[in-house]
């Protein structure tokens, strides 16, 4: 079975340029998560989609960051303009979440292999 | 605010030398605690979910346990291929997102 697919695996660009990261979640999953990982802060949640709708974007650092999920099989994370402090590894994860009232199922999140982003 | 603290930050073991990794957490009602393994250049790979204090789960040389304040990942007779960063995460009741610790980097030498 295909896992979560991210592209590109590596991206090096100059400050001020637009960066677009892409993610294809596992087929059948209804939830998608974007994370950023750095040595200093570890793995931080940026935004979470459920059924293609953004549910929690409180982790998005600032307006330079935006994310979309136009359909169940594709999502993008865009940084415009990029800055050197955005350099990190960005991960996408997906899972199936069923909600019954206030309870959520605990299907584990499955991660892609990340995009290593370097802003010069 | 949910918090997860993992210790030690790094651990070096000889092959066959058993040890434990610690994950301390504070959460407003634990729905689940997750352990992941992360290899260099890869995304985290799911290992276990624990739901309630006293629960234990095993997979090969790994055993995860849970109390009301912490979880342990016990590694019995580790092999070099167990070298990786091990991440712990918690999910609170009423939420579908995870809060991760910074991980423990394990190196097992032959």
Q: How is this fold's topology laid out?
A:
The complex is a heterodimer of chains A (120) and B (110).
Chain A: E1 5-7, E2 10-13, E3 19-24, E4 31-38, E5 42-50, E6 53-56, E7 65-71, E8 74-79, E9 88-95, E10 99-100, E11 103-104, E12 110-111, E13 115-119
Parallel strand pairs in A: 2-13
Antiparallel strand pairs in A: 1-3, 3-8, 4-5, 4-9, 5-6, 7-8, 9-12, 9-13, 10-11
Chain B: E1 3-7, E2 10-14, E3 19-26, E4 30-38, E5 45-50, E6 56-59, E7 62-66, E8 70-75, E9 84-92, E10 99-100, E11 104-109
| Residues in β-strands, percent of chain A | over 45%
Q: For the report, how would you describe the main beta sheet of chain A?
A: 7 strands, mixed
Radius of gyration of chain B: 13 Å
Strand content of chain B: over 45%
Q: Count up the helices of chain B.
A: 0
The topology string of helices and strands of chain A comes to EEEEEEEEEEEEE
**SS class of chain B:** mainly beta
Averaging pLDDT over every residue of chain A, what do you get?
Answer: 93
Q: Roughly what percent helix of chain B?
A: under 10%
Helical segment count of chain A: 0
> What is the ordering of alpha helices and beta strands of chain B?
EEEEEEEEEEE
Radius of gyration based on Cα positions of chain A: 14 Å
Oligomer: heterodimer
Tell how many strands the DSSP assignment of chain A holds.
13
General form of chain B: globular
In terms of structural class, how would the helical and strand content of chain A be classed? Answer: mainly beta
């Amino acid at each position: 079975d295909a896992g979560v697919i991210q592209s590109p695996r590596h991206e090096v660009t100059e400050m001020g340029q637009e960066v677009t990261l892409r993610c294809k979640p596992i087929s059948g999953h209804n939830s998608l998560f974007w994370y950023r990982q750095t040595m200093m802060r570890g793995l931080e949640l940026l935004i979470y989609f459920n059924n293609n709708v953004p549910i929690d974007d409180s982790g998005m650092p600032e307006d330079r960051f935006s994310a979309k999920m136009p359909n169940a099989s594709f999502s993008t994370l865009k940084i415009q303009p990029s800055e050197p402090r955005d350099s990190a590894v960005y991960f996408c994860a997906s899972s199936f979440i069923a909600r019954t009232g206030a309870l959520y199922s605990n299907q584990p999140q499955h991660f892609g292999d990340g995009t290593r982003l370097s802003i010069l | 605010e949910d918090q997860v603290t993992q210790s030690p930050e790094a651990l070096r073991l000889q092959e066959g030398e058993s040890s434990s990794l610690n994950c301390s957490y504070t959460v407003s009602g634990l729905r689940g605690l997750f352990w992941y393994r992360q290899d260099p250049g890869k995304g985290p790979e799911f290992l276990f979910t624990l739901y309630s204090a006293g629960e234990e789960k095993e997979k090969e040389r790994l055993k995860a346990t849970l109390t009301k304040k912490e979880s342990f990942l016990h590694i019995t007779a580790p092999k070099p291929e167990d070298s990786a960063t091990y991440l712990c995460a918690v999910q609170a009741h009423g939420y579908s997102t995870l809060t991760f610790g910074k991980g423990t980097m394990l190196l097992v030498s032959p």
